Amino acid sequence: MGDPHSNPRRYTELTCWRYGGWGNISDLNSGKYFTNAFIKANQTWIDQNKKIDVNILLAKTVGGQDPLQGTNHTSTDTEEQWADTFANYVAGNIDMSKSAGMDMYKFTRDIFVPDPRIR
Asked: Is residue 17 over pLDDT 70?
């Protein structure tokens, strides 16, 4: 497999896969705090298929599939949508030059640091 750091795209893909799990764990351990906030948010980064809009991601595919969204969950599973949002945020895989990308970034940042005085 080699060193994933030598291939920035592969490193992003692996990072997103790992951090998706952390998104799930943080949500479960918080009594679904993150999923509940996600449901209430204006999710401009979620497309009509209830997936993250691939057009706002920097790395778009892995082996022909969307890398940063689990394939083993239903399209309306908000817990997985939250975990995918978190994973892309942590991996730095959000295209912030796009409005929906900036919305996704700000939502995820603000949910962890809600007080603007300490951002």
From this structure: no
